Amino acid sequence: MKRITIIGLCFIISLSMSIPAFAAEQPAEIEAAGAFLREHGIYQGDSSGDLMLDKGLTRAEMAAVLTRLHGEGEVNPDHYAWACYFTDVPAWAKPYVGYCVANLLVSGYDASHYGPNDMVTPAMACTVVLRCCGYKDSEGGTWTYNTAGQYAVSLGLISQSTAQASIITRGEMAVLISRAWKPEEETPVTPTPERPPEDSGTSQPYTITADHWSREDFSQQANPNVFAGVYNRALYNTIRQTLVDGTSETAPAYTMVAKGDKYSAVKNLLGRMEGILRYEHHVPQNFTDYWQYLDYFAVSAKMPENYQAPLDFIQPAVSHVNTLATDREKVEYLNDYLCSLLAYEEGASSGITQTFAPHTGELKAACGSYARAMKFLCAAVDIPCFTISSDIHVWNLVYVEGRWLHVDVSANDLSGRNGVLLTETYQTGKDQAPDATAFLKELLVPGSTK
Q: Would you tell me how many other CB atoms lie within 10 Å of the CB of residue 147?
């Protein structure tokens, strides 16, 4: 974030200094912070001018606020709509979410789902504001997503009561922003929208001389019939090396993927793979010649910080699964376990962090939530699994007993019988991306369709 005019901010800071750091945000400070953000175009009221400071804000609205704050009105968010590949984000919010993704301010629940209508929690708010206001360098060390709230409390940026609330209000968010901003420091220039950088971990320059590279030709292990169009051998090697080696900053496998339909197809492919790890387009930050290779595409693999709590939650189930003799028994158990946590309701959604957390009763969810949760569970017990979808439905393919078999946990839960549990065929609709499905089978289990 660049430097904001300091005059109005000094008044807000003086108000915050007049009360204890751990005290709840005071009405006068909330009003002053809201007025300051309105003056600078960061907050915009409703049609009557009301800033709605007592109301919560959604994740889509948060992205709009962060874009105005971080870009200070000097960027056109429409130029960043390309970076929003979440399928659930409405058209008006895509430029804002895209800007925040490109500048590493926010992330989605997975590659396809951002949760634009979910209310912002204090943990979310503290994480994105700390990133936006000059505290990013200490992320992963001094603070993480799970500790951002308490870290913000320790700095006097937010009150203890606000940090422990279920949602944060627009007024509390305004105070958090005004307290967090560092007027004495210049923050780094943000990256260009074409490049989604990550922490380099090395100061050595990284250069390339060819349009693709991998340490070995992994594609020789796969069924050659799956290579078609964008799903080629170079892409296979790029992703497969990450699956085998993990993220590399010094010698990542890479290929070229042009922006547009091909890029969208590859991003969707990565999203279908995600279980515990998130797979994303990766460009080493020390790539000195990136400007010459704007279609450069490597892949990173990383568990989102907010997945640790869900992973801890499912450990009793994982321990039981590991006592079972066969993968078939394991998948059958995971199907029943997930049915005990969710109840089908069309249009409802329950993310990984909601599904795998203490709650009373069964959470309402539609097919997509079931399918993503099943990927998470299968990943925890090392069973290959990905999502498959028609135009109206989402379910899973799992690799068991040397075959790719269908599992539809949502249908099983709704019907009360396990009618689609490890079946060879499933006539629920036409696969929207059969080429990608064939490629994924070979990517996760080389030679599985030969």
A: 15
Contact 413/299 with Cβ under 8 angstroms?
no
CB of 283 closer than 8 Å to CB of 346: no
Distance CA 82, CA 67 (A): 15
Q: Give the whole-angstrom CA distance, residue 426 versus residue 118.
A: 33
Buried residues in 227-266 as b, exposed as e (16+ CB within 10 A): beebbbbbbbbbbbbbbeeebbbeebbbbbbeeeebbebb
Tokens encoding 207: 């250069």
- Work out the angle at residue 29's Cα, subtended by the Cα atoms of residues 122 and 16, and round it to the nearest 5 degrees: 85
Q: What is the DSSP letter of 186?
A: P
By three-state DSSP, how is residue 193 classified? coil
| Closest by CA position to 324, among listed 272, 260, 388, 381 | 381
Question: What is the rounded CA–CA span in Å between residue 396 and residue 407?
Answer: 5
Q: For the CA atoms of the chain, what is the radius of gyration? A: 23
Contact residues for 396 (Cβ-Cβ < 8 A; gap 6+): 371, 374, 375, 378, 385, 386, 387, 388, 406, 407, 408, 409
Cβ neighbours of residue 231 under 8 Å, at least 6 residues apart?
Answer: 269, 435, 436, 438, 439
- The pTM score is 0.62
Contacts of 403 (CB under 8 A, 6+ apart): 424
CA separation, residue 409 to residues 112, 182, 375, 398 (Å):
19, 49, 11, 12
Q: What is the C-alpha separation between 299 and 168, in angstroms, rounded?
A: 34
Residues 279 and 298: beta-carbon distance below 8 Å = no
What Å distances lie between residue 98 and 69, 108, 415, CA to CA?
15, 11, 39
Fold for the domain defined by 307-438 = C8orf32 fold (3.10.620)
Return averaged pLDDT per consecutive 10 residues of the chain, 450 residues in all: 42 42 66 80 79 92 92 81 88 92 87 90 93 76 85 89 92 89 41 40 75 95 97 98 90 90 88 93 84 90 92 98 98 98 91 92 93 97 95 94 97 94 88 95 97
In the chain, where does the domain assigned CATH 3.10.620.30 lie? 307-438
